[in-house]
Amino acid sequence: MALVLILQLLTLWPLCHADLTSTGSQESQGPSSPVFSVPPALYPKPWLGAQPAAIVTPGVNVTLRCQAPQPAWRFALFKSGEITPVLYRDVSMELAEFFLEEVTPAQGGCYHCCYRNPGWNLGVWSHPSDTLELLVTDQLPPPSLVALPGPVVAPDANVSLRCAGRLRGMSFALYRVGVAAPLQYRDSAEPWADFPLRGASAPGTYSCYYHTPSSPYVLSLRSEPLLISADGSGSLDYMQGNLVRLGLAGLVLISLGTLVVFDWRSQSCAQAVSGPEPQRTGHRCLAV
């Protein structure tokens, strides 16, 4: 039994890990020798996926599906950090399913799979699939929230709030302090999402979070609050405009007052000259 295990380690472990042997070493081997590294064109890698999702809460049943691009008869599932395969499946088709029941956080990690074809030489396995990260957690880490180009925005400009997590393919939600419902939703293939805001209505305090796009939903913690403030230059320009308008209004009032005084003095002088007995007043009138 120990000899069989050793033989499996010698054939499988170098094939399904990144440290594959070089092409030159393959060419030096005879056609009947075990091949530990093979050209991708002849032995293409499979695809590894997770159902219902690659991010789940503890206790959920997860199925890892290894899809080969051609008929195979044996599949092997590996987990990073472990030498021996986690599971084997002998199936005469292109698909093998590996069942993980009621997963725990300890079962989370990076997985990949390999397959064998019955027509291949002994010891020949496919290249490993791309790594699949299985995350088993009750809550995702909080995202960061930043303003682009900055947290100070002019009334006639726009600002974009970027909510950035650590995982791709998540759904994001933006909240504003004082408003119960989310302002915007975004589904993103990247580990971030951008929320555009108009500058006139942007000032306020915001936060965001993200979650898995489908059930079973796993939510993140809220981000730290971000304060968006209005640009002071716009307010200063508005104040200066008001001062100019007030100054012009004052000049108009002074001009009107001056005209009223001159008119009153003219009428007073006319009455003094045309009267029967001119009286001395404090005003000097021109001789007529």
From TrEMBL:
Q: Which GO terms describe its cellular component?
A: plasma membrane
Domain Ig-like per the UniProt entry, residue ranges: 40-137
Tell me the PROSITE patterns matching this sequence.
Answer: IG_LIKE
Give an example GO biological process. Answer: immune response-regulating signaling pathway
Asked whether the UniProt record includes Glycoprotein among its keywords, one would answer yes
Please give the superkingdom of this protein's source. Eukaryota
Question: What are the GO MF terms of this UniProt record?
Answer: collagen receptor activity
Keyword set for this entry?
Disulfide bond, Glycoprotein, Immunoglobulin domain, Repeat, Signal
* Region forming the signal peptide: 1-18
Please identify the protein, giving its name as recorded. Answer: Osteoclast-associated immunoglobulin-like receptor isoform X1
Organism equals Neomonachus schauinslandi
